[in-house]
Write a structure and sequence with these properties.
The complex is a heterodimer. Chain A contains seven helices and no strands. Chain A is mainly α. By secondary structure, chain B is mostly helical. Chain B folds into four domains: about 200 residues, Fumarate Reductase Cytochrome B subunit (Up-down Bundle); about 100 residues, Orthogonal Bundle (Fumarate Reductase Iron-sulfur Protein, Chain B, domain 2), CATH 1.10.1060.10; about 100 residues, Rossmann fold (3-Layer(aba) Sandwich), CATH 3.40.50.1860; about 110 residues, Rossmann fold (3-Layer(aba) Sandwich), CATH 3.40.50. Helices cover about 55% and strands about 5% of the residues of chain B. A four-stranded parallel β-sheet of chain B has the order 2-1-3-4. Chain B has a four-stranded parallel β-sheet with strand order 6-5-7-8, with helices on both faces. In chain B, helix 9 packs antiparallel against helix 10. Chain B starts with a helix and ends in a 6-residue tail after the last helix. Classes of the chains: A mainly alpha, B mainly alpha. At the A-B interface, helix 3, helix 6 and helix 7 of A face helix 20 of B. Bound molecules: iron/sulfur cluster (5 copies). One iron/sulfur cluster (SF4) binds next to helix 15 and helix 16 of chain B.
């Protein structure tokens, strides 16, 4: 069907795959994630990003879009070094976000089993 | 049976129960220690360490010297209660011995001496004992009065807050508060009837007697006294008063060399947790109060561990700055304790860092590891390299382009297994270089390289030590300037690693370091600590601004620190210029002729 516009794959959210549990869990304990403006400062300075293709900003985006399949392998690359915290213009406490995601993944997995 | 054979039962049964529970707990704690700790105890038992522990138990458990040092009034309160009560028991025992003419008699005869001995008051030293016991009771009562007062007006003690209480604590506290006033009433009333006290109590007793006939009151009073004692003893193991026996136990274990180094929660955790007297000194020492964080100070963590309701929100909301540990009169190793708890709660989600690869190491004398934080403060990095070049050192800048973190932030977050991967990678690179020295410009790195890496034949040096050494060897020379500065001791370097003098000595070559109120062991935290995973940026700013304002009150030309994270954190406040040691050195470097 043609609605007279097209959708960009990268910008669409697939609600069949949307899993918001982790996002909600993270926001409950670290609301500062809400004020992220996606400037990419964190990714530019990131120690882990310096060594691999790890992209913390994109990870947040994935989280917000409820795409959690790759979250586990990706999130484990962070070294908690704290550089992102110091460069972030909005004071987003990303290290806590990382720890909360790690915890949430275990938490929901345990729940499923 | 008559009343006199029955009324002391609540006391005796309570005491037996208490004794049983305490022995049971101590045994459990000992059994739960690691193998190596048990060996330490066995070796320590018949050594000087035991004598040292006995002395320390008297000094801290009874006299409370450390509390005194921190706060005179609070020290007096603790001492009058503990030491006063102890003396009452000891002197009371001698009094009863003198009366019986033997050291052996039923225990209750010394505790309830004035109840039993009402007629024949003429035994050796009876006047002395009567006066001594009554004065001691007044001494203890003065402590009790202070305790009442503190509960309602903690500010009078110069303390911001006092600890919150739970149900069991209330029962224990009420019983404790009643013991000595009850004893006072029992003894004065008895003296009013039989005149078996010193003139002090006899007169007070007479005054009571003028109000009515005291005799029917005696039995109920003594029975109540016995019950209050019994209730206190039974409640003790379940309240904070467990700290009384636990602290003594801790002193011995600590002196024998038991530590928390195993990185597992074991019963030594409990031995420490139960030793906390909830004196509240750590709350006062903690800067988090300023930012409105009031539930994560050490005393609360210890309490939560004991009550098994510790949450991540509380556990991770701490800078691990070590100020409370420095202040704790019991000497509880709260930093390590907190980190072991963090290890436990995050054990299930450690990372593996499979992507880590070691790149080729360069053969060199000195490895320079800047670390993530120094990379964020290019001025420090540049200055350090300039100094190395000026001194003509043969060095290799290990993480110039790519390097993993040192691992310390992971460790303070409890992720020890994850950190180990980083440690292994870095270790390999450092050892491959064949260097004799590892130079770091970050105290966070310094601490972890020093304590958690195994680097045989490699000396880990912080740049403050290293540059000072260069100056002493004449490899670089510094000129004097007329600048006045304030030096900030970073937590990880000062309290964390005990380096206070080298930075000051180095600075004194070119500038004047002004003494300030919070320096060395008492230094404040900049607020930037990576060990706190919960604190928000706004809360951090409150802490940094407070510290900077204190510095500003000394009117320095600028603030000097020796940690890139402190520098970055302070610089954000825009209150005073901040420089690293290395920058100050570069500014005052005299070119080689
Ligand atoms: S630096 Fe801060 S604001 Fe920018 S993308 Fe990262 S988290 Fe968001
Ligand atoms: S803490 Fe993690 S996400 Fe932030 S800069 Fe360091 S490695 Fe990157
Ligand atoms: S941890 Fe130490 S300072 Fe804090 S309340 Fe307990 S005994 Fe006092
Ligand atoms: S380590 Fe520092 S931040 Fe943590 S409780 Fe103690 S004083 Fe407060
Ligand atoms: S301590 Fe800080 S600066 Fe040093 S390597 Fe680790 S994260 Fe980086």
């Amino acid at each position: 069907m043609d609605f007279g516009f097209s959708t960009l794959e990268a910008r669409s959210i697939d609600f069949d795959k949307f899993d918001g549990r982790i996002l909600r869990y993270v926001l409950q304990y670290e609301p500062s994630l809400l004020v992220c403006l996606s400037c990419g400062g964190c990714t530019a300075t990131c120690s882990a990003g310096n060594l691999t293709d790890f992209n913390i900003r994109r990870l947040q985006l994935m989280l917000r879009r409820g795409e959690v399949e790759n979250l586990q392998t990706e999130i484990n690359k962070c070294m908690l070094c704290g550089k992102c915290l110091l460069v972030c213009p909005r004071g987003v406490n990303l290290r806590n976000v990382v720890m909360l995601i790690k915890k949430a993944l275990v938490h929901f997995k345990n729940q499923e089993n | 049976m008559e009343f006199k054979d029955l009324f002391y039962y609540p006391f005796i049964l309570g005491a037996i129960y208490l004794f049983g529970v305490v022995i049971w707990r101590f045994t459990k704690w000992f059994i739960g220690l690691s193998k190596i700790d048990k060996i330490r105890v066995r070796i320590g038992l018949f050594s000087k360490k035991t004598l040292k522990s006995i002395w320390e138990s008297i000094r801290e458990g009874l006299l409370h010297r450390n509390v005194f040092r921190n706060n005179k009034l609070l020290g007096y309160m603790h001492m009058s209660l503990a030491f006063g009560w102890f003396l009452l028991i000891v002197v009371g025992h001698f009094e009863a011995s003198s009366y019986h003419g033997s050291m052996f008699f039923p225990f209750q005869h010394s505790v309830f001496f004035r109840y039993y001995v009402t007629d024949n008051v003429d035994f050796p030293g009876h006047v002395f004992f009567a006066y001594a016991m009554e004065i001691l009771l007044f001494f203890v009562l003065s402590g009790v009065m202070l305790a009442y007062f503190k509960r309602f007006r903690s500010k009078a003690f110069g303390m911001k807050r006092t600890t919150r209480m739970r149900y069991g604590d209330r029962i224990g506290l009420t019983a404790l508060w009643l013991i000595f006033p009850m004893r006072f009433l029992c003894e004065t009333f008895t003296a009013g009837v039989y005149h078996n006290g010193s003139p002090i109590f006899n007169n007070i007793g007479d005054a009571f007697a003028s109000l009515g006939n005291l005799e029917p009151w005696l039995n109920p009073l003594w029975l109540t006294y016995s019950i209050v004692l019994g209730v206190f003893f039974v409640a003790l193991p379940y309240t904070r008063y467990m700290h009384i026996p636990a602290e003594i136990n801790l002193i011995f274990l600590r002196n024998w060399g038991v530590t928390l180094k195993e990185r597992r929660v074991n019963t030594y955790t409990l031995a420490q947790v139960y030793s906390c007297s909830r004196c509240g000194i750590c709350i006062d020492a903690c800067q988090l109060n300023l930012a409105g964080i009031k539930n994560s100070q050490s005393v609360y963590v210890l309490k939560n561990i004991r009550n098994k309701n510790l949450t991540d929100e509380v556990l991770f909301n701490c800078l691990i700055c070590g100020k409370c540990q420095e202040a704790c009169p019991v000497g509880i190793d709260v930093n390590k304790l907190r980190i072991t708890q963090r290890i436990e709660t995050t054990r299930q989600y450690n990372s593996s860092y499979d992507y880590l690869k070691t790149s080729e190491a360069k053969k060199t004398d000195i490895v320079y590891f800047a670390g993530c934080m120094t990379h964020l403060t290019p001025a420090i990095k540049k200055s350090m390299l300039q100094i190395l070049d000026a001194a003509g050192e043969n060095y290799w800048f290990m993480d110039e382009n790519k390097a993993p973190c040192c691992g310390r932030p992971l460790m303070t977050a409890g992720q020890f297994d994850a950190a180990q991967k980083l440690i292994d990678t870095n270790t390999k690179m450092i050892l491959d270089s064949g260097a004799k020295k590892l130079l770091v410009t970050c105290p966070i790195c310094y601490k972890v390289f020093k304590e958690d890496y195994t680097l045989p034949n490699v000396e880990v040096v912080h740049h403050s030590e290293y540059i000072l050494d260069l100056v002493k060897q004449g490899k670089i020379t510094l000129k004097a300037s007329d600048k006045n500065v304030v030096y900030h001791d970073p937590c990880e370097l000062g309290r964390g690693s005990g380096i206070y003098d080298q930075p000051r000595e180095l600075l004194s070559q070119s500038v004047t370091v002004k003494p300030i109120a919070h320096e060395r062991e008492k230094a404040l935290c900049c607020g930037g600590s990576l060990s706190n995973l919960k604190i928000s940026m706004d809360e951090r700013s409150v802490l940094s601004a407070q510290v900077m304002n204190e510095f500003a009150s000394y009117n320095p030309d600028y603030v000097v620190t020796s940690c890139p994270l402190c520098k970055k954190t302070f610089a954000k406040t825009d209150i005073l210029p901040v420089k690293d040691l290395a920058e100050v050195v570069v500014e005052n470097l005299t070119p080689r002729s």
